Amino acid sequence: MGFLSCGISKAGYLEKEAPRLEDWLNKNQNGQMSYMDNHFDTRLDPTLLVDDAKSVVSLLFNYYPKDFQGSESYKIAKYAYGEDYHHVVKDKLKELLFSIQSEIGEVAGRAFVDSAPILEKAWAAKSGLGWVGKNSNLLTQKVGSFYFIAELIIDLDLEYDYATTDHCGTCTACIDACPTEAIVAPYVVDGSKCISYFTIELKENIPDEMKGKFDDWAFGCDICQDVCPWNKFSKSHNEPLFSPNPNLLTMSKKEWTEITEETFRVVFKNSPLKRAKYKGIKRNIDFLQ
């Protein structure tokens, strides 16, 4: 089905993550992402999401592109080059669940792709798919970090995997490179300082003190991934639905500045950029000028 890898953990309460999540929320490092305050217990315990849950099946799906935007353009995060991953990956997850049911019989469960209160990186790390790095992304030695994380939570007892070890070592490349100093400590990202937060999640005007710090990022940001040494092992995906509209790769700054709502709808049909909407992208472009 195209997934990079799969790991399995016993469903249960994430005791180690509970104090970290509570501390992060208490420091308001979620900014205006108020939804992060909701469903605290559910985030930590998948058995509250799926009745009689026994296993969390974590999967990775590559999105590293073959072709990239031109250097004289406003930048968008690589995950947003193609169609919205929520739909693309979730369809594959449902297919996987159906194949499990076809093979084994009646198995109840739910598919999740960044769409429910689940600590996805924690489960992927617990399942041995990688470790959570200093930039708070899941990192994997063989393929870096340019992938989506998805889960099946099912009522089936399985053989469980084990966590891997941390391979960040003394490297601080991501911390040093972040222009807004959002990585406030190793393994801790203040979401309210992140360029992705400002360009996607924040609905009001971007604070003036951030002027000149965005390095031309108009939607999301890949800096802490681009500088990570493990991403030299990234290989391009082969998912047609993640291929960008050719116009995106050639758009100049002038074309971004002059983009009309009609062009936006055509170029970014079914794109993650629709989350920020035309109005949000225009705000971001205006801020970068």
TrEMBL record:
Keyword Oxidoreductase: yes
InterPro entries membership: 4Fe4S_Fe-S-bd, 4Fe4S_Fe_S_CS, QueG, QueG_DUF1730
BP-aspect Gene Ontology terms: tRNA queuosine(34) biosynthetic process
Any Pfam family the entry gives: QueG_DUF1730
Record GO terms (molecular function): 4 iron, 4 sulfur cluster binding; epoxyqueuosine reductase activity; metal ion binding
Annotated ranges, domain 4Fe-4S ferredoxin-type: 159-188
Protein keywords: 4Fe-4S, Cytoplasm, Iron, Iron-sulfur, Metal-binding, Oxidoreductase, Queuosine biosynthesis, tRNA processing
Coiled-coil positions: none
Superkingdom: Bacteria
Name by which UniProt lists this protein: Epoxyqueuosine reductase
Protein's organism: Flavobacterium micromati
Lineage: Bacteria, Pseudomonadati, Bacteroidota, Flavobacteriia, Flavobacteriales
